[in-house]
Amino acid sequence: MHKMAHVESPPVKGASLHPRRRVYRLSRERRVADIMDSARGVFCAKGYGDAVISEIAGQLGIVEGTIYRYFPTKRDLLIAVVEDWYRRILADYDEQLKGISGTRNRLRFLIWRHLKVIHDDPAMFRLVTGELRGGADYRTTSVYDMNRQYTKRTLAIVEEAVKSGEFRADVPLRMVRDMIYGGAEHHTWAFLRGEGDFSPDAAAEAIVGIIYRGLMGADTAPNSENGAVDAQAISRLESVARRLERVAESRDPRRGREKSRKQG
Amino acid sequence: MHKMAHVESPPVKGASLHPRRRVYRLSRERRVADIMDSARGVFCAKGYGDAVISEIAGQLGIVEGTIYRYFPTKRDLLIAVVEDWYRRILADYDEQLKGISGTRNRLRFLIWRHLKVIHDDPAMFRLVTGELRGGADYRTTSVYDMNRQYTKRTLAIVEEAVKSGEFRADVPLRMVRDMIYGGAEHHTWAFLRGEGDFSPDAAAEAIVGIIYRGLMGADTAPNSENGAVDAQAISRLESVARRLERVAESRDPRRGREKSRKQG
DNA sequence: CCCATTAATGAGTTTAACTCATTATAATGC
DNA sequence: GCATTATAATGAGTTAAACTCATTAATGGG
Predict the structure, then answer these.
(1) CB-based contacts of B114: which residues, under 8 Å, 6+ apart?
(2) End-to-end CA distance of chain A, in Å?
(3) B contact residues 188-217, partner A, Cβ 8 Å cutoff
């Protein structure tokens, strides 16, 4: 509102006064790739908020406007950078998973892989969780889709284990997934802030251990302490029930599933 | 570098040209409280990045500079707002926890409380997770301290249950805490982005169920005071029995155990 | 070697965080 | 009730960074 006329002699808008230095032009693809490379470095080093477009341009020896030719906003640039990173990460994902068998091994691999990514590239992960995931446009992002695919594998493995009777059926699958990935992330906060370190191997093993014991049919070791009469009786019944459940489910999965489901 | 002399007649720096409207002064405390109130509303409505100081000032009928008298930066204002909110949240925390007994109940209360906070004030929670927690200054924040106190209670409850033999001893306690709070948060992401809803009660129950089964001693806690363990096992057996009865009714009752048979 | 295409420029504008010399209000002392 | 004083508040800035666009010129196809 308080714009003031400072000089009433406006030079014609794009009039050039100095000769331009020799300019080398790159193909669109090449320039875009260069910009994303540089942007990634700056975003990781400074974080999104403190990253400055002119610094990215400066690294490439180009001018800010050139970047805006390819990326309409700073945020679009961020999204492109993160999407590219995520795509690379997940490139050989299914291939690797194919080579691993057994519920426990497969589950541990998925968790370990996730933790390894965080460990290897904490700055990028921070961009995802701190900047992207909170935004209203997150769902329009391919990161969202890729992430869904990613966690869906986990759900599928747990689901299969339930069907085969390895896992109990009365457990909310979504929450299992949430606790795995949420737990992994929560576990790495301190590291992500630059405080100390963590071990992807140890953490994956810990998570898979808790989940496994939590979902396993209540197989109990024999115990003869006082009060064990009831416990043993229940344990025996649990075991019988589990066997029967398996039989019932393989006979009529539809009925079995819909009746044992409690929460969605 | 390219600052240009626009007008060579600089008016003396703070010279007043217009008479000021009548100004009412508030005490420092009162003004700070008002600013924080207003800031909270704007931050929640727009998010930190899109919130504008001048809008906060406008709501109060004051000028931007007044806000900067009390809060050196926009971020400091955010931190103050979040700290205040968090302090209120945790005010009666220990009091409430004191009235709850039994590992399972206490654990569920802590989780439920956390989920309830998210459910009741998602925008504030987003400020904490999206803006504050990622920052390098998070640890200097009292939110950090309060959060530590908060999750420490959880750890204490689990630790005690391990000592009493209710929980198994070979479990990494930190990871249990991480899976509880990380899982809770992961579970609420969609809601936090404004997609759909979630039930704090159901979610808390689901989390506590998984954790409980995962940590329960293999001997199923012979001296469990409130009988929660046995009750859970029995409840599960009852539900399985009901289900089996239903399956049996709709089938040839004389058919015994057989190998599972695949059907379409 | 021309010329159409389009990469790149550079000189802006706009917006929003932040600063500070000055003003004048409300509390204090007499 | 009046002068004094401490300080709340102002308003007119500056600065920085995202973003725009008319113009320029490098490049590759003919």
Answers:
(1) B150, B181, B184
(2) 54
(3) 189, 192-195, 202-203, 205-207, 209-215
Q: What is the pLDDT along chain B (264 residues), one digit of tens a residue?
A: 333 333 333 344 434 456 667 889 999 999 999 999 999 999 999 999 999 999 999 999 999 999 999 999 999 999 999 999 999 999 998 999 999 999 999 999 999 999 999 999 999 999 999 999 988 899 999 999 999 988 999 999 999 999 998 988 888 999 999 999 999 999 999 999 999 999 999 999 999 999 988 777 654 433 344 444 455 555 555 555 555 555 555 554 444 333 333 332
Q: Which of A186, A239, A246, A250 would best serve as a mutation to test chain B binding (most B beta carbons within 10 A)?
A: A186
Tell me the nt nearest to B62, Cα to C1'.
Answer: D9
Helix segments in A74-199, DSSP class H: 74-89, 93-98, 103-120, 122-126, 142-163, 173-192
Q: Decide if A131 contacts A137 (C-beta within 8 A).
A: no
Superfamily designation of domain B87-218: Tetracycline Repressor, domain 2 (1.10.357.10)
| Predicted pLDDT of residue A150 | 86
Q: How far is B123 from chain A (nearest CA, A)?
A: 11
Is B220 in contact with A234 (Cβ distance < 8 A)? Answer: yes
Distance in angstroms: CA B68, C1' C23: 18
Q: Do A251 and B261 touch (CB under 8 A)?
A: yes
Nearby residues of B138 by Cβ (< 8 Å), 6 or more positions away: A193, B132, B144
Kindly state the tokens that stand for B93: 């925390």
- C1' (C4) to CA (A33) span, angstroms: 26
Q: Which residues on B lie below 8 Å from A251 (Cβ)?
A: 247, 251, 260-261, 263
SS3 A225: coil
> How many angstroms is C1' of D2 away from CA of B23?
22
Q: Which amino acid is present at B235? A: S
Give the pLDDT of residue B7: 35
CATH fit for domain B28-71, picks 3.30.1330.30, 1.10.10.60, 1.10.1410.10, 3.90.1150.10? 1.10.10.60
* Structural domain boundaries in chain B: 28-71, 87-218
CB distance from A100 to chain B under 8 Å? no
Q: Mutate which of B43, B186, B191 to disrupt the A interface (most A C-beta within 10 Å)?
A: B186
Q: In angstroms, what separates the C-alpha of A16 from chain B's closest C-alpha?
A: 16
Q: What is the pLDDT of residues A152-184, one digit of tens each?
A: 999 999 999 999 988 888 889 999 999 999 999
The type of residue at B136 is A
